[in-house]
Description:
Blueprint: E1 6-8, E2 11-13, E3 41-43, H1 51-60, E4 65-74, H2 75-81, E5 92-94, E6 109-111, E7 114-116, H3 119-126, H4 152-159, E8 171-174, E9 177-180, H5 185-196, H6 200-211, H7 243-253, H8 259-273, H9 282-286, H10 309-323, E10 332-339, E11 355-365, E12 375-380, E13 389-395, E14 405-413, E15 417-421, E16 427-431, E17 435-437, E18 445-448, E19 452-456, E20 460-462, E21 465-468, E22 477-481, E23 487-489, E24 494-497, E25 501-509, E26 515-523, E27 529-531, E28 536-540, E29 544-546, E30 550-552, E31 561-565, E32 571-574, E33 577-580, E34 584-592, E35 598-606, E36 612-614, E37 619-621, E38 624-626, H11 635-639, E39 642-644, E40 647-651, E41 669-674, E42 677-684, H12 698-708, H13 716-722, H14 733-743
Parallel strand pairs: 4-10, 19-26, 28-35, 38-42
Antiparallel strand pairs: 1-2, 3-4, 5-7, 6-7, 8-9, 11-14, 11-17, 12-13, 14-15, 15-16, 18-21, 20-24, 22-25, 23-24, 25-26, 27-30, 29-33, 31-34, 32-33, 34-35, 36-39, 37-38, 40-41, 41-42
Amino acid sequence: MKSRKLKFKGIILLLVICIITSTINFREVKGAIYSNLPVSYIDENFPDSYMPYINALKEKHPNWIFKAVHTGLDWNTVLSHESYEVNEGISLVEDIYGAEWKRDGQNYYQDGNYVTASKQAVAYVVDPRNFINENGIFQFEVLSYNGATQSVDAVQSVLAATPMGGQYKSQYKSYGTWYDLGTTYAELIHSISKDVGINPVHIASRIRQENSGNIVNGSLINGDYGVYNFFNIGAYDANGQSAVTNGLNYARNNGWTSVSAALRGGIEYIYSKYIKWGQDTIYFERFDVNNPGTAQWLLGTGYMTNIFGPKGEALITYNAYNSYNMINSPFEFHIPVYENMPEEVASMPVPSDVYFVEDDTRVYLDDPSDSGATDEFWIRTGPDTVSTILEVLYETVDGAENRTKFTRIGIGQNTLYDKIKYDDGRVGYILKKWIYEYKYNEVESVSLDTTYANLNVGDTLKLNATVNPSNADNKNVKWSSSDNSIATVDSSGNVKALKNGIVTITVTTEDKAKTAICTINVVSNKVTGISLDKTNYMLHVGDSLAITPIIIPSTATNTNYTITSSNSDVVSVENNIVIANSIGEATLTFKTDDGGFTAKANVTVTGEDKTILVDDSLRLEDGVLSNIDLDNNFVLDIKNKITTNYDITVINIDGEELSDDDRVGTGTKIQFIENGSVVEEYTIVIYGDVDGSGVINARDLLMLQRYILGKAELNNIQIKASIIDKVSQTPKAADLLKIQRHILGKYVIEQ
C-alpha cells in the first residue's frame, strides 16, 4: 500500500488506523476542497422528502429535537469525494459483501479484507434519509456533553458486553499483573468526557467499536507493554512495523502509561480533531461536510473508512439509552441537507439480477397463520436482512380493513422483498409473504356545505366536507388556508377570521387528492376598542372643547359614542362638547355604542389664566410634540423652546423623571404642573426612536421587527414613532428598511 497523508483541521498527520475489530480508521482523504467553502447554517426547515421520516419519529418520541444542517455542498460533489472517483480508499466494505456493494463488482483490496465500495453503496450510506429511523438516528446525535441524557448507567450499558463493563470493569492490567482501578471504566469515561465536553456514551461506543473493550487480550489496551491506546490512534502498518507496534509507540510517545491518561488523551484527541471543528455527530465524523465557519477544508477528515461505521455506533448508542429507559429523553439531532438532492431516497445496492417491476397496488400486511395474535413485521430500508430497520410494525386487529395500508410501488424480482410506500411518503421493503392486496373503494369527489361566506374579524365558521361515494374506504381529509394571516382552518374544518382580506379554504382528500374550496371574505366592521390621544386636559372656567376619541378599527361601521362626566358641576357635556363650568376636577368617560368599550380622561378646570407657548421650530398636534432636533434633544433644549408660567416636570417612557442633561425620546412626557397636579401634558415623538432612548439605533430596529412579526407589543406612541412616512395606519417592512438605512448613514429620517 502506498504511503498516504491524512489531513486534519490545522495540522497534517500520518495517521492510518488498522482494523482491530469491525472498523477501519483515520484513512487518507486526498480529495479535500480548500477554497470557496460553504458555511453551514442550522434551522428546523427540512426538505419535504425528509419530513415523513422525521414526523414518524416525532410521533413516537415527542421530546426529540430535530435540526437541519444546511451544508451548502452539492449532492453529486459529496458523492464523488466520498467514493473512488476522487479517492479509491475513502469508502470501503468487507470483501464478504455481494458484488453490488463493490466497485465494478470486484475486490479492490485497500486494507486487510476491506475493498473499495461501489458508488451506489456510498450514496446509500451518505443519504441521511436512510437512517432517520429508530435504529439509525443516533448517528446524528449532537456529541457535546448533555448531563440530562448521558448518565454513567448509559455508559455502563455500552460497555456491559465487554470486559471493560463486565468482570474486569474495575480492574486494569500492567505488565501482566492485574490491579484495582479505584473506579469503574464507565465512571472514569463519564468523568473525563464531561470534563472535556463530549458525549461519554459516544466515547464508550467508539471504544467498543474499535477494540471491543478487550482489556484481557487486546494488545493495545491490556497493559502488557505498560501503555494503553483505547482508540487505536496511530496504529497502522508503516516503516516495517506492525499496526500494533506503531499504536503502542504512539501511546508511549504521548505518555499514555496509565488508564486515565490514555482515556483522557484519546478523548481530547477526538474532541480536538473532530468535535470542535463542526464534526459533532458520528455522521459528521465519518463524512466531513459540516463547516460551522471555522473549517480550513471540507471532505478531508474522516475517522474511519468502513461505510457502515456510523450505523454500527448509532445502534450501540441507541441500545445503551434504551436499556436504561432513557430513549424518550430530549435528544438533539443535527441532520445534514445537501444541495440538489434527488427526491427519491438513495436505494440500497441490490444484486444485478434483483430488480423491481413498477406497481401501484393498495396492500396491507398479515400473517394469517396465527389469527388473533399480534403480528410483528420488520420493514427495512433495503431488500435485505442486513439493511437498516425502518420500523417494526405490530398489528393487533385482524381484518384487512383494520390493518395499516400501504401502496406497493415495486414487485421484487429474484428477491423475497417487495417495495412499499407509506401514506406519509416513507419508502421501505417488506417480505413478500406478508403482503396482501387490499380491495378498497376509491374516493371520487369531495364537496363542502358552504362555498362562500362573509366573516367579520374574530368570527368562526365550521365547514363540513362530504366525501363521495359514501362507501369510500378512506374518507380522511386535510384542510388548508391560502393565507393564514387572513384566516386559519384547523384539522376539523373550523375557520377563524383574523384580518381583512379574501382567502380560500381548501379541503383535500387523502385518497386521490380530490379538492373542494370555500371562498371567505373577511371584513372588520365591528368596534374592538376606543382610545384617546390624551388622558389629561386643563380648561379654564367658561372654556369648551371637542374631544374626539379614536374608534378601533378605523373600518368600523358604527362609530357612535357618548361622553359622560363624573361631576357635571365642574364639567358638563352637551352634544359631545365638553364645557368647563367651575374650578375643580372631573373624569370623562367615552363609551362606544357598539360593544360598550370605554376610555377615560381627567379634566382640571382652573380660574387663573396661565399660558404655554411652544417655539415654532417644534410641531405640536393633539398634545404630541415632534420635529425634535436629534443633535439637540436634551431636556434643557426642549425647556428652552417652551415659554410657560407653569412648573415643568419631564418623565421618560418608563415613568422616570429626567434631569436637564438627559435626552428626551419617544414617549417622554412634558408635564405642566399647578398646585401639584398635572394640568397639561405633551408627549414627544421622535420618528425612528422606538425604544424611547432619544437615539435611533439597532435596538429600535429589533423592537419594530419583533412587533411586525407579532412577537412583541408596542404602545400607541411607539407605533406612531415607527411609522416613518407619518401617514400609514401601521408600521410596515418599509419602515424597518428606512430605520436601517438611517443607522447606516444612507438615509435621514425627517422629524
